[in-house]
């Protein structure tokens, strides 16, 4: 009802005055949006934790300001049509379509920019949970560009039906031609929602490669191995294979150091020696406490394991080395023997061999 009364009031004014009122009102409202929006954004972002809300509001604000100005220009065409300047219907329609096109482009650019800035804010977050958000930002941009193109064609009265049919055929062709890329895309989306890994995690692939996740893109994942070699693996392969994430749910990891000692070794001395070595190794954590477990009676000696924890999976190799060196030295000082495989070989004389064969024949 208020809009109808405003329209009636404008129609009662001379066309030139109505034009001035509409343009001036749009400028005033746009200025209010600009000034009031800045104050409102400052209050909202101060109360909401994180940077995403600040990025979103500050990105959308200029588009709102521009939309008010464009709305004033659009409705200013009404007084022009009333007699200030006689506009032919075709010109009037083109002007309106032009204004709407500018507004469409402004919002399309704003939303693309919003997606990029929110993606960067989430990706740079301290918790690192947004490592694959850029994948969705790329999809978001592609969808917005496509929708904007179709909306512009509709504004200018172009029939998009043939384009939709062509797009369907092209989509089938592209689907067959780029099936690997599409598989990698959906593989990356599945990895993101499953939370398989993020940038910075230490992973072990099914093929045996172990390293730190350096980058996750829309097509592949880059892993830096301990040899400082970058390994690029398609996301579709990772999505369908076994991946061991050593950094979750906690970064600390247990390491196992197998040791074999000769039969007759004092077990209490062995356990005290191993626990003492673990306690003196810097990379080994005090909690959970190290422990020693006897595993089996081997062919040449007793097999035991030293179990201890390190704070980060990157320290596993170094800690294992330090423990092995320290155990070797400690065993030498304590007189604990590390056995080596032994085999008994018997050489029989001819008479003894004949006797054994005869005995074997008698058994048969």
Q: Rounded to an integer, what's the Rg over CA atoms? A: 38 Å
How much helical structure, as a percent, in the residues? 55-70%
Instruction: For the record, give the distance between the C-alpha atoms at the N and C termini, rounded to a whole number.
Output: 115 Å
Major sheet size, sense and barrel closure = 5 strands, antiparallel
Oligomer: single chain
Shape by Cα distribution: elongated
Low-confidence stretches: 126-131
Note down, in words, how this protein is organized:
60% of the residues lie in helices and 14% in strands. With 364 residues, the chain is of the alpha+beta class. A hairpin with a 4-residue loop joins strand 3 and strand 4 (230-234). It is elongated, with a radius of gyration of 38 Å. It folds into 3 domains: 2-154, no CATH class; 159-249, SH3 type barrels, CATH 2.30.30.60; 253-334, Alpha-Beta Plaits, CATH 3.30.70.100.
Structure keywords:
3 domains, alpha+beta, five-stranded antiparallel beta sheet, 12 helices, elongated, three-stranded antiparallel beta sheet, 364 residues, SH3 type barrels, 8 strands, Alpha-Beta Plaits
How is the secondary structure organized here?
Elements: H1 2-12, H2 15-47, H3 52-75, H4 77-84, H5 89-123, H6 133-155, H7 161-177, H8 179-194, E1 202-205, E2 210-216, E3 220-225, E4 230-234, H9 235-239, E5 243-245, E6 253-261, H10 267-280, E7 291-297, E8 302-310, H11 316-334, H12 350-363
Antiparallel strand pairs: 1-2, 1-5, 2-3, 3-4, 6-8, 7-8
Helix pairs in contact: 2-3, 2-4, 3-5, 5-6, 10-11
């Amino acid at each position: 009802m208020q809009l109808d009364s405003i329209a009636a009031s404008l129609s009662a004014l001379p066309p030139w005055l109505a034009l001035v009122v509409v343009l001036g009102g749009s400028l005033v409202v746009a200025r209010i949006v600009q000034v009031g929006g800045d104050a409102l954004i400052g209050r909202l972002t101060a109360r909401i934790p994180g940077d995403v809300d600040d990025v979103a509001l500050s990105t959308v604000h200029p588009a709102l300001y521009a939309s008010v100005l464009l709305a004033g220009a659009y409705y200013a065409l009404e007084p022009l049509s009333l007699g200030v300047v006689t506009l032919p219907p075709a010109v009037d329609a083109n002007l309106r379509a032009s204004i709407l096109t500018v507004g469409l482009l402004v919002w399309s650019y704003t939303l693309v920019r919003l997606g990029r800035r929110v993606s960067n804010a989430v990706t740079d977050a301290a918790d690192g949970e947004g490592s694959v958000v850029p994948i969705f930002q790329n999809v978001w941009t592609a969808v917005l560009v496509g929708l904007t193109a179709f909306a512009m064609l509709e504004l200018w009265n172009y029939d998009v039906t043939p384009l939709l049919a062509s797009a369907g055929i092209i989509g089938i062709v592209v689907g067959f031609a780029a099936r690997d890329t599409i598989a990698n895309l959906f593989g990356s989306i599945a990895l993101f929602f499953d939370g398989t890994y993020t940038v910075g995690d230490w992973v072990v692939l099914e093929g045996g490669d172990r390293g730190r996740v350096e980058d996750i893109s829309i097509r592949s994942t880059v892993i830096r191995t301990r040899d400082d070699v970058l390994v690029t693996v398609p996301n579709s392969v990772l999505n369908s294979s076994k991946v061991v994430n050593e950094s979750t749910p906690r970064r600390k990891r247990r390491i196992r150091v197998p040791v074999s000692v000769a039969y007759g070794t004092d077990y209490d001395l062995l356990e005290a020696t191993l626990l003492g070595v673990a306690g003196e190794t810097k990379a080994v954590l005090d909690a959970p406490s190290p422990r020693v477990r006897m595993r089996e009676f081997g062919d040449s000696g007793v097999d035991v394991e030293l179990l201890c924890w390190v704070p980060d999976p990157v320290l596993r190799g170094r800690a294992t080395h330090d423990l092995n060196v320290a155990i070797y030295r400690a065993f030498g000082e304590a007189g604990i023997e590390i056995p080596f495989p032994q085999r008994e070989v018997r050489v029989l004389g001819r008479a003894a061999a004949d006797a054994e064969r005869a005995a074997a024949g008698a058994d048969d």
